[in-house]
Amino acid sequence: MLPDMKRTTVELSDDLDARVRHEAERRGMTVSAWTREAIEAHLSDQGRRRCLTIGAGQSGEDAVAARIHDMLGREWSDRSQKAP
Protein backbone atom coordinates (compact mmCIF):
# COMPACT_ATOMS: atom_id res chain seq x y z
CA MET A 1 0.00 0.00 0.00
CA LEU A 2 1.21 3.51 -0.79
CA PRO A 3 2.12 5.82 2.09
CA ASP A 4 -0.71 7.91 3.55
CA MET A 5 -3.34 5.76 1.88
CA LYS A 6 -6.54 4.42 3.41
CA ARG A 7 -7.97 1.09 2.35
CA THR A 8 -11.61 1.24 1.24
CA THR A 9 -13.83 -1.62 0.23
CA VAL A 10 -16.61 -1.15 -2.30
CA GLU A 11 -19.17 -3.61 -3.57
CA LEU A 12 -19.58 -3.82 -7.35
CA SER A 13 -21.87 -5.86 -9.53
CA ASP A 14 -20.16 -8.61 -11.51
CA ASP A 15 -20.59 -6.57 -14.71
CA LEU A 16 -19.10 -3.39 -13.25
CA ASP A 17 -16.23 -5.31 -11.67
CA ALA A 18 -15.42 -6.89 -15.04
CA ARG A 19 -15.53 -3.50 -16.77
CA VAL A 20 -13.23 -1.92 -14.17
CA ARG A 21 -10.76 -4.80 -14.39
CA HIS A 22 -10.81 -4.73 -18.20
CA GLU A 23 -10.17 -0.97 -18.31
CA ALA A 24 -7.36 -1.18 -15.76
CA GLU A 25 -5.73 -4.00 -17.72
CA ARG A 26 -6.17 -2.13 -21.00
CA ARG A 27 -4.32 0.83 -19.50
CA GLY A 28 -1.67 -1.33 -17.89
CA MET A 29 -2.70 -0.26 -14.39
CA THR A 30 -3.73 -2.00 -11.23
CA VAL A 31 -7.40 -1.87 -10.33
CA SER A 32 -6.47 0.25 -7.29
CA ALA A 33 -4.53 2.78 -9.38
CA TRP A 34 -7.30 2.99 -11.97
CA THR A 35 -9.93 3.43 -9.25
CA ARG A 36 -7.93 6.22 -7.59
CA GLU A 37 -7.54 7.94 -10.96
CA ALA A 38 -11.25 7.62 -11.74
CA ILE A 39 -12.28 8.99 -8.35
CA GLU A 40 -9.79 11.85 -8.62
CA ALA A 41 -11.10 12.73 -12.09
CA HIS A 42 -14.68 12.65 -10.81
CA LEU A 43 -13.84 14.96 -7.90
CA SER A 44 -11.38 17.20 -9.76
CA ASP A 45 -13.82 20.09 -10.08
CA GLN A 46 -12.82 21.24 -6.56
CA GLY A 47 -15.55 19.13 -5.03
CA ARG A 48 -18.32 21.06 -6.76
CA ARG A 49 -21.01 19.16 -8.56
CA ARG A 50 -21.53 20.10 -12.16
CA CYS A 51 -25.00 20.52 -13.55
CA LEU A 52 -24.92 18.32 -16.63
CA THR A 53 -28.09 19.85 -18.05
CA ILE A 54 -26.74 23.39 -18.40
CA GLY A 55 -27.26 24.46 -21.99
CA ALA A 56 -29.31 21.40 -22.88
CA GLY A 57 -32.19 23.53 -24.15
CA GLN A 58 -30.14 25.90 -26.27
CA SER A 59 -31.48 26.05 -29.80
CA GLY A 60 -29.03 28.53 -31.25
CA GLU A 61 -31.95 30.77 -32.19
CA ASP A 62 -32.48 34.26 -30.79
CA ALA A 63 -35.62 35.34 -28.92
CA VAL A 64 -37.12 31.86 -28.72
CA ALA A 65 -39.21 32.79 -25.68
CA ALA A 66 -40.75 35.71 -27.56
CA ARG A 67 -41.51 33.55 -30.62
CA ILE A 68 -42.47 30.29 -28.93
CA HIS A 69 -46.18 30.48 -29.87
CA ASP A 70 -45.37 30.96 -33.55
CA MET A 71 -42.81 28.16 -33.48
CA LEU A 72 -45.16 25.72 -31.75
CA GLY A 73 -48.00 26.70 -34.08
CA ARG A 74 -45.86 25.87 -37.12
CA GLU A 75 -44.77 22.55 -35.58
CA TRP A 76 -48.34 21.48 -34.81
CA SER A 77 -49.51 22.63 -38.23
CA ASP A 78 -46.79 20.58 -39.92
CA ARG A 79 -47.67 17.49 -37.86
CA SER A 80 -51.41 17.76 -38.50
CA GLN A 81 -50.79 17.89 -42.26
CA LYS A 82 -48.76 14.64 -42.05
CA ALA A 83 -51.35 12.77 -39.99
CA PRO A 84 -53.34 10.06 -41.83
Automatic annotation (TrEMBL):
<feature type="domain" description="Ribbon-helix-helix protein CopG">
    <location>
        <begin position="6"/>
        <end position="43"/>
    </location>
</feature>
<dbReference type="Pfam" id="PF01402">
    <property type="entry name" value="RHH_1"/>
</dbReference>
<dbReference type="InterPro" id="IPR010985">
    <property type="entry name" value="Ribbon_hlx_hlx"/>
</dbReference>
<protein>
    <recommendedName>
        <fullName>Ribbon-helix-helix protein CopG domain-containing protein</fullName>
    </recommendedName>
</protein>
<dbReference type="GO" id="GO:0006355">
    <property type="term" value="P:regulation of DNA-templated transcription"/>
</dbReference>
<dbReference type="InterPro" id="IPR002145">
    <property type="entry name" value="CopG"/>
</dbReference>
